[in-house]
Amino acid sequence: MKEKNAWHMNGFIGILLIIALLAVAFLAMSRDHFFRSILLVIIAILIGSGLTIVQPNQANVVVFFGRYVGTIRKSGIALTVPFTNKKKVSLRVRNFNSKKLKVNDVEGNPIEIASVIVFKVIDSAKATFDVDDYEEFVEIQSEAAIRHVATKYPYDTLDDHHITLRGNADIVSKELADELQERLNVAGVQVIEARLTHLAYSTEIASAMLQRQQAAAVLSARKMIVEGAVSMAQMAVEQLSNDGTIELDEERKVNMVNNLMIAIISDRGAQPVINTGSLY
Fold first, then answer.
1. pLDDT tens across 120-161, in order?
2. Composition of the chain by helix, strand, coil, percent to 5
3. Helix (H) or strand (E) holding 237
4. Matching CDD domains, A to Z (predicted)?
5. May I ask the CATH class of domain 94-204?
6. What is the C-alpha end-to-end distance of the chain, expressed in Å?
7. What is the pTM of this model?
8. Contact criterion met (CB below 8 Å) for 264 and 225
């Protein structure tokens, strides 16, 4: 199905025709022309059955005895084919808030996720005839798309080179909108925006995952501290050797590096011990 324009004209012209026909029918009735009067009334009824009112941002789908005639989008009162069924389809922008879905991310961790979908109907024929209920279709397909996208990425990771649900919300939302648009093309619906509104670990693993994140953060920080301490100790030894002010043998170099590493890596402030030499 594809939307097309239905034949229609200004509805006020149809109202004037109906009034004129009824006036002539009344005049014919007064002159005892019963057959002519009945015929004029029937014609007026035929014209009246073709009248329809179209609201702003609304489309009237016109069906004539099971056959799709076309769609009227121009707001106001219109006159179209008589004895047709007119189904109203809203063209307004609408929001759909999905439920909080429990899914597993790419690492198998259960998470809770929800989103808001902003959409509108752009093809009234597809929305009416290609699906049973386009609003229900949008709801079901939205939840299916959210589940599919959520299973492609991890909730969070310490590696900045990987896309995550928490750290790359814009990328995930765009992919969700693109996938949802592919699913809703059959219903004549345009996806304007798709955004994540809720994202969290599932309650049964939330505390465990928090501890895991804290442990991973501490491990990453320790790694950076150790790398920095090794670099600083190496630079100190090289600078003292190059200046030639102090001669250090291998044992003293090891002790110096050991002291520097302890002073830098330790969580507490270093307490130096001053060697004053022997008293005797």
1. 999 999 999 999 999 999 999 999 999 999 999 988 875 666
2. 45, 25, 30
3. helix 206-243
4. SPFH_like_u2 (cd03402)
5. alpha beta
6. 107
7. 0.70
8. yes
